Amino acid sequence: MKAAQVIKPKAPLEIRDLTSPSPQGKEVLVRIKSSGVCHSDIHIWEGGYEGVKGQIMSVEERGVKFPLTLGHEVAGIVETVGSDVTEFNEGSRVLVYPWIGDGVCPACQIGEENLCDHPKSLGVYQNGGYAEKVLVPHEKYLVDIDNLEFDAISSLSCSGLTAFTAVKNADTSPKQTLVITGIGGLGLMAVQIARALLNPNIIAVDIDDKRLEQAKKFGADYAVNSRNGDAVKQVKDLTNGLGTDAIVDFVNGPKTVTPDIDMLRKRGKLVLVGLFGGSIELNLPLVPL
Ligand SMILES: [Zn+2]
Ligand SMILES: [Zn+2]
After folding, report:
1. pLDDT of 225-236, one tens digit each?
2. N or C: which end of the chain has fewer CB within 10 A?
3. For the whole model, what pTM was predicted?
């Protein structure tokens, strides 16, 4: 089977011919119909994330091994199943959950495999979806998608889940305010999920008016353009000068997190999601106060 692999950071991907795996036991081989490209893929391809003072946190030091087939947003059709698979058959239409753990560490024991001590995520620590087929280690990682479209569904396994969890962690009530910073794919997903799940007062923050307009169409109550640097004032004006109860920041760079902290109300929650990178100086007394 063909797979597009990263051979080494920042080099063009290579199309390689790999042996098509034959599933054993609970394993399932999925023929890929749709595979999303996530911003994390770009970080992995670049070889790392920007940390403090421009220092790069290498993905190889964090356990990534090249050559690697990227791709963790995969939807497709079951091609063959191992002998112990009971829930899926050849031809089943599925979304693949990629955040696979070792199954034995404390995180895995309570069902948080995405935070495993020894992660085996597809497309990160083992071959993923930039290929014709992917081997899924257990049928429990598959979700039946019925007749939903492959292209529409594939990104739900990463950007959909990420936005869902971030909004859940923000945990705002209908009387509270939630700021969503960074209105890209995840931000727009989060606006809709927040409206449906928690129904708070939603303030969308971005530097692009077109995206902010879209956020309002998707359920944001207010839009704040932070390009001119007065996002803190605008958010405070919208919250009786008190600040917001929670923020989900899908950028997570110095230019967003520094104002985040200044626009947060007492007892407020800041959920950092994006991997833009960099660092900020933190005014420590503000945290306990
Ligand atoms: Zn992703
Ligand atoms: Zn684990």
Report:
1. 999 889 999 999
2. C
3. 0.91
